[in-house]
């Protein structure tokens, strides 16, 4: 247990910032995890990380066990779609996190990859070996992993120069009026709800999303979506911004449904082989649960 006493000069400080000042040996993210988990009590009462100190409070912190500083191998199911000396393409299931993050240090794609392949590129650090790009936890589909640092640099350059072609399948609410469309509004962090991104502000990072209608249903539209950029939550944000949130995506306005995931699937990816310079196309079939959902429509 760590005990701190706030002084009068601490009045008006956010709880998480105060703790980071007093306990610099712990990251702000870790301290925020402890606050969220109720491990931090102000005058014997749990508070939010945004709580503003009044001064002279007694603050007790119960540290949690620190996670490993590197990812550990775990024997987890892994569907390999493509593999060579440079690159691995995996069909990530919905529900699996790509790499360790706040509060999640096992059961990730990285844990499974390390068990299967042992050595991956090191450029993304010891907690994210091999990871060049990501998919949201509740999104399924093909994701590329670099086996060597050289391959990682090559793939990263392809992503940044928009030479990687990424095609998704998305079922959205409502009837999309046009058969094709392009969304180019910039994306930035939502200033009110920090867990969300938004395309409703004039500022932000450039983002390009193109879509084509594949099928129409009574209350839904099935889209093929291509993205020229890879912004956080890009497809989900852009489609919600035109009034058509992805089915199952309650964060961006989709109503409750039988889906316990997003109807968003990284269906196809095309890239250039780092060693042979051949163009390689990898495709992940639509998961059974999404095929059944379509059949029910």
Describe the protein in words:
With 297 residues, the chain is α+β, with helices and mostly antiparallel strands. The chain has 3 domains: 60 residues, Roll (Structural Genomics Hypothetical 15.5 Kd Protein In mrcA-pckA Intergenic Region, Chain A); 93 residues, 2-Layer Sandwich (Pseudouridine synthase), CATH 3.30.2350; 136 residues, Pseudouridine synthase (2-Layer Sandwich). Helices cover 19% and strands 26% of the residues. Strands 5, 6, 7, 8, 9, 12, 13, 14 and 15 form a 9-stranded mixed beta sheet that branches. A hairpin with a 3-residue loop joins strand 12 and strand 13. Helix 1 crosses helix 2. It starts with a strand and ends with a helix.
**What is the CATH architecture assignment of the largest domain?**
2-Layer Sandwich
The outline comes out as globular
Total individual domains: 3
Number of DSSP helical runs: 6
Structural class: alpha+beta
Q: Which percent range describes the beta-strand content?
A: 25-35%
CATH superfamily of the largest domain: Pseudouridine synthase
Q: What is the CA–CA distance across the termini?
A: 55 Å
What are the segments in which pLDDT stays under 50 over at least 5 consecutive residues? none
Mean pLDDT: 94
Question: What's the gyration radius in Å?
Answer: 22 Å
- Predict the CATH topology of the largest domain: Pseudouridine synthase
What is the percent of helical residues?
Answer: 10-25%
Main sheet overview: 9 strands, mixed
Helix and strand element order: EHHEEEEEHEHEEEEEEHEEH
**Number of separate strands:** 15
| Highest-level CATH class of the largest domain | Alpha Beta
């Amino acid at each position: 247990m760590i005990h701190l006493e706030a002084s009068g000069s601490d009045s008006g400080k956010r709880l998480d910032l105060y703790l980071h000042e007093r306990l610099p040996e712990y990251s702000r993210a870790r301290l925020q995890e402890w606050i969220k988990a109720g491990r931090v009590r102000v005058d014997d009462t749990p508070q939010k990380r945004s709580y503003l100190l009044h001064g002279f409070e007694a603050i007790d912190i119960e540290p949690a066990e620190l996670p490993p500083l590197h990812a550990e191998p775990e024997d987890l199911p892994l569907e390999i779609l493509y593999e060579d000396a440079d690159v691995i393409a995996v069909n990530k299931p919905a529900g699996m996190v790509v790499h360790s993050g706040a509060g999640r240090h096992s059961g990730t794609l990285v844990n499974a990859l390390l068990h299967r392949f042992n050595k991956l590129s090191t450029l993304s650090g010891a907690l994210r070996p091999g990871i060049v790009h990501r998919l949201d936890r509740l999104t399924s589909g093909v994701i590329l992993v670099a086996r060597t640092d050289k391959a990682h640099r090559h793939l990263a350059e392809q992503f940044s120069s928009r030479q990687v072609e990424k095609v998704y399948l998305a079922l959205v609410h409502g009837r999309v009026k046009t058969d094709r469309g392009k969304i180019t509004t910039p994306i930035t962090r939502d200033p009110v709800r920090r867990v969300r991104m938004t395309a409703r502000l004039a500022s932000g990072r450039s983002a390009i999303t193109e879509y084509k209608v594949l099928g129409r249903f009574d209350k839904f539209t099935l889209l093929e979506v291509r993205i020229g950029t890879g912004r956080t939550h890009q497809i989900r944000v852009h489609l919600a911004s035109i009034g058509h949130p992805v089915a199952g995506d309650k964060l961006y306005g989709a109503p409750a449904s039988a889906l316990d995931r997003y109807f968003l699937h990284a269906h196809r990816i095309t890239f250039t082989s780092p060693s042979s310079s051949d163009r390689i196309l990898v495709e992940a079939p639509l998961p059974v649960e999404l095929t059944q959902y379509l059949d029910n429509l």
